Structures are given as C-alpha cells and as structure tokens.
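Limitations
The structure tokens in this dataset are predictions for the assembled complex, not deposited experimental models. Users should treat interface geometry with appropriate caution, especially where small molecules or nucleic acid strands are included. An illustrative entry is reproduced here so readers can see what is and is not provided.
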Amino acid sequence: MNAEIIAIGSEMLAGDRVDTNSLYLTGELNKLGVEVVAKCVIGDNRDRLAAQVRQSMGRSAILILSGGLGPTEDDVTREAVAQALGRNLVFDTAIADWLAQRFAAAKRTMAEVNKRQAYVIQGADVLSNDRGTAPGQWLEESGAVAILLPGPPHELKSMFQRHCIPRLASIAPKQVIRTLFLRVAGMGESDLDQLIAPVYKKYQNPVTTILAAAGDIQIHLRARCETEAEADALLAEVGDPIELLLGDRIYSRNGDPLQVVVGDLLHKLDATVSVAESATGGMLGERFTSAPGSSQYFVGGFITYNNAMKMELLGVSPEVLAEHGAVSQETAEAMALGARARTKSTYALSITGAAGPETGSEKVPKGTTYVGLSDAAGTISVNRQFLGDRQRIRTFAAQMALDLLRRRITGRP
Amino acid sequence: MNAEIIAIGSEMLAGDRVDTNSLYLTGELNKLGVEVVAKCVIGDNRDRLAAQVRQSMGRSAILILSGGLGPTEDDVTREAVAQALGRNLVFDTAIADWLAQRFAAAKRTMAEVNKRQAYVIQGADVLSNDRGTAPGQWLEESGAVAILLPGPPHELKSMFQRHCIPRLASIAPKQVIRTLFLRVAGMGESDLDQLIAPVYKKYQNPVTTILAAAGDIQIHLRARCETEAEADALLAEVGDPIELLLGDRIYSRNGDPLQVVVGDLLHKLDATVSVAESATGGMLGERFTSAPGSSQYFVGGFITYNNAMKMELLGVSPEVLAEHGAVSQETAEAMALGARARTKSTYALSITGAAGPETGSEKVPKGTTYVGLSDAAGTISVNRQFLGDRQRIRTFAAQMALDLLRRRITGRP
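Predicted assembly:
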C-alpha cells in the first residue's frame, strides 16, 4: 500500500525551511506497513495543488496533505482538493458554532475570515483539532483516501494520532517489517553493486537500498511479510548470499560506525591504540574519540603536519624522509613505530598522504595515501589512491586506517 | 520566472532523511531572481518520475532534478526524463572514454554497469562532473529547461556553480541582488537575535536569515533591487547598525570559516600554531588542516586523551593533575605550554573538558571546557560551560579555541 505526502505553503519553499511534518508522517506510515513513494511541497497556488492532488490520488492509495487550512485567502488546500475531485465545498454549521465558542472562551472576537475554516469538501468526514482552529478532513474517492491536516506540527501530530492512525490501521494490509543492516568498508559503490546486484535485483521484497559515503557503504534490506517467520526467511534468502559475497568487508550488522566496532574490539582485548597523523591532521583521533567511553582504549597521539614534527615528535629519521619522502611506505611505518614507542600503546596507526588541492606531484599524485600499523608483531603499511576533494580524500584515509586495524585484530589481512 | 525541483531516490523518502540539495538549489535560484514554486522527492520509479517531470515542465520554466544518475538499475532519472519528453537515450563515446580514463588513473577496473552513465538524452548538453563519475545534462523543451544533476551534494554544488548558474543567469530576469554575509563566534543564537532583531525586523527587503551551529552563527542579508546603488544603500541601512552591535564578535565578512580566518592571520604574521587536545581528540587539528595550504602555519600537535599522555607527551606535572584535575585551568595552561615548548610554534592552543555522556562530575559538570593559549607573552586560559551532546560540546570547544587565538592575534581580549 503506497502513500504520498504534500505540504502546502509558499513559506515551506524557503531555502532554510525543512518540511518536518513529512518526516513524522513517513515514520508513522512505515510503522503501519505503508510505503511513502513520493512527497512534495507546493506553494499557495490552487491550480498547481489541484493538479498534484489529481496525479497523486490517481496512483497511490493514500494522500496526506498538510497545511493550507488556515482562514486566509492564501490557504488554498480545501478549494484545491475540492477542485481536483470535482466536488463542492459545504458550509458546516457545527464547525462554525465550535469556532465561535472557541473564540468566545478565549474572549476574542472571531474575524469574519475564520468562517472559511467551516467549509468542508462534500462527502468528507471532519477531524476535530484539539490544538488549534483548523479542522482536518478525511475523504475517499475511487478507493483512494485523501487526508487534510493542519500545518503546525503539534496540531498535525495530535490529529493524526487521534483520528488517522486507527483508521489507517484498519485499511492497511496486515504485515510485519524486518530489516537487515550491513556496513561495508574498503570497497567502491559500483564494485559493490556489481558484486551483489545479481542477488538482490531478483527481489522486489525485501527492498534493498545502498547508501555510499567515502569508504563507507550502508546496505539496507527491508522485508515486508504477513508473518515474522516469512520476513526472516526472505531476509535470509537474500541476505545470506550477500553476506557470503562481501565476507569480511562487512564490519557492522547493527549500524555501529567503524570507530565503535574497532573500539569494541580493542576494549574486549584490553588493548590500546594511538595515532600519528599527517594528512588527516587529527581526523582519525577525532573519529576514535567521537565514541563515548573511548578513553578506555584510545590513549592519544601526534599530529605531525611537517617533516620537522615527524622527526622531532615521532623520531622519523631524516634519511627516510630525504630518500623516500613524507608520503611513502617507509615514512608511514616509521610514524606508526614512533607513535607506539612513545605512547606504549598496543597498536599505533599512522596516516600520511597528499590530500590536495595543491599537494601532490607526478611521483606522488593527489589522493596518494599510506596507512601504517605497528604492534608487537611488527609494522605494516598499505597504500591506496583516492579520488575526490581534500576532505573526501582525508575521510577515505581515516576510514582505511580504522579498517586496517579491524582486520589486524580479527586476523583478516 | 518559476522553478521546480525534484530529488530522486527511494532512500530520500526515509523518515530521517532531508533533501538538503533542494535547500541549496533554492538559495541559488532565489539569488538569480527565480522563485521555487514546488519541490518533490520521488522514489526510484521511472513511470512516477516521468509523470512528475511532464507535469512540472508543463507549468514551470525551470526544472532541476537531483540524483538517480548513478550506474545502477535503481538510477532511473535519465530514462524517466527521456520517457517524459519522448526522446531517445544516446550512447556518448566521449563520456565512456572519460569514465574509462578516470578509472584507469585510479588504477581501478571499471565495472560494466558504469557504462550506463554514458547515456545522454537526445539533444541534451553534457555537464562535466569534476567530483564524481555521473555527468549532468541540460536540455530544453518548448521553452522550458530541465537540468539533471548528480545526487551527492559536493558533486551537485560544483556542477551547478560551474555550469548552471552562468547559463541560468543569462535567461533569468535582470535584477540586482546584493548580500551581506557575517559570521559570528562566541554568542548564543537567542542572545544574538535579541540584540539584532530590533534592527532587521522592520525590513522585508533585505531578507535576513540567521543560521546557527555550535559556536558559529551565520547572518545573511539579501537585498533585491533594480540597481546596485539601491541594493547597496539598503544593505548599509540595515547592515551597519548590526555590525556596530556585534562588534568584534564578527570574525568573517566573506563566508570564510574561523579556521581559515585564523590561518590567514597566522600566515600574514609568518607565525605558526600547534595544538594539544584532550576532549576534542584531534578535532581542532582537523579543523586547522581542513584549510588548503594550512601546512604554512599549522605544524602539528598532541592528542593526550589520558593523564599519562598529558604528562609524558606534554610534560604536565603529576602535581597539577592531582591537585586541580585534568579538566582545569592549570592543566589547560600546562598543556599549551608543553605543546609550544615541544613544537617551537609561535602559538599553542590546548583543550581539556568533560564532553560526556559519562564524563562530568558534581565539581566538573558535563560541558565544562577549558581552552589554553601559550605564546611568547605568556600563557592564558578561558573556560566555558557548554550545553548539548558530546559532539556539540566538542564542536563548541574547538570553535572557542580558534576564536581565542583570533582575539589574541588581533589584540581583542
């Protein structure tokens, strides 16, 4: 069962304004097993809104409109929906009386325009508003439902909870929603999709969604079925082969970000980590310490942004820097070794690279990144070439360092 | 001149996801004098998107689509727009070659699906993407313009700025828009608004917008007039009293973030800075080094996340830590002193605090933050109590450190 949402109001189209009602409504509809397939914000224009209402009601079972139910000429929702469905507006004396009482109780005079709020689309049920003056409306047309709700979020939420959720639950198909959530490091989006698309493309249910950030891909599988057992079986049918294909590239199955996964591994081992950062300038430390409780495993480290600091703070030898350069395997390994020796941490991670835009050369092109890792067993390093702007390259680099440590701890080279 | 915006992607319809691209695009279109009259988010469904495209192009002069240009089957924008306009998709060998080169340069194999990105709607102009693999498209139909842009915000912004703004400016109605852009540190949003609202509330033109982040408030004044002189006069009429009220809390008049403003000050003085971070764990270093060219003044520093590291890496004395605690004026000053002594930088900044959620005590409540600053003239510190979650407190702390250095350099205590 599909739904669409339309927010009405020119003020909702400002460059700093977000339609939060649609976020709330989407969450509630999803809980009922109803999927939101489109949402719009339309300015205060009756014809444009009527066209959108016709289109949405022609293809989706539920249309929710928010806003435009106020007393002024700008409030066009009643008229636009009536126009879209070819129905009349009827003056509802019960609403008019209720409005008059409300104003009297507040010892305020009711402006003549407020009577506009007493008009109801022919055949619609009135939804009472316990937080404001604009009543809502519920109407049906050719098997589709349109619900008119007031724009102020506290009015909308109260009305939706009291009147709409019970009524929608009775018409929504009975169903259970189960999700599988995987996070993957160290793969590009298109490589990942090419690998797993042959599995998930065959299925409309579960719905598979892939979200990619720098070095970090999230895969969501959402199964909707009549019973939990069916949903779990479907998730296993699609999820198991995907997990098999991705193997140890999957670092999280509960949504935890990589720094939390690595932190938990360190904490369980009673191990500690330190960092030595050049190109990332503190981003790796910031990632580690963004996790509450990180003081249990993260001790600290060094930001060595020039060669002098690499020598003085980490003991990287002038010869290594002269011979191999600051962006090299040798420097990365010497940085990690130096950080571990100075902090006595179990593990030390280092990052050196050319993040651009002005760094980088023919020998060491922009995006070149070396990550070093030192522990009691020795010191290793890996290198990669990343694409993108400065901040993206740095984000990739920090993610690669965290993933290198995850692999080292879990014995997956 | 009216515009509509459609964001494409089922993931954009989640209950916790906001289409930020449309906010950016609205801001830019408004600057061009173009009004946004409707915007939509449509899931990955070709027919539904095609219907929306037909409707929008039938009533508005400009339609901007974002997302759905990736390489996978889910990416339906090219097909949907072609379907809406009854045009064919044409394989563009120049794009295919460019994609192949891009992958070769990164030493990666191009997945077969990436070739989907080389299809162009018949008659469309290709918009190059300097941040990713999805080219954009610009096409015209019966006097209306449709622009297809990639979904990732950094790709969309770069493409829109480089290709679309100049071209839209040539078709948009002539009007002059002048803006005043102020950035303010060290004030809360409501305090600031209480101070300046009496000035700006009287004016519909210029439009005043206030955007607040942790410790960082942006004030935009936008005047639209027929002539530059009129617009400048209006901006001065409203902007001058605001600048007078805010005084040296204004740190930027050109949009530069605080780390860039401080970096420029350091660079002009031929001075350097180092950091010693506890609670922020690297965030201050990350901020400094997010600015291109920061190696000219940022040398590096220390992340000392526990007492042992504060003693060993920075030489904070055990007595200071025992007597005053890690979150104290004395420790902050000793950290800054230690960082400066060890790096020989002109200035050293330190941060120590209780960012929570589990840190903090009766004596040192969550949010307590000390920032130290050491230079040739001596060592000072300031403390503040911040509200919010862990990441917000840390962001406040890093901003406060940057602002302390700005005030020190410019002689404003």
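Some entries come with short summary sentences. For this one: The longest strand of chain B covers residues 176-185.
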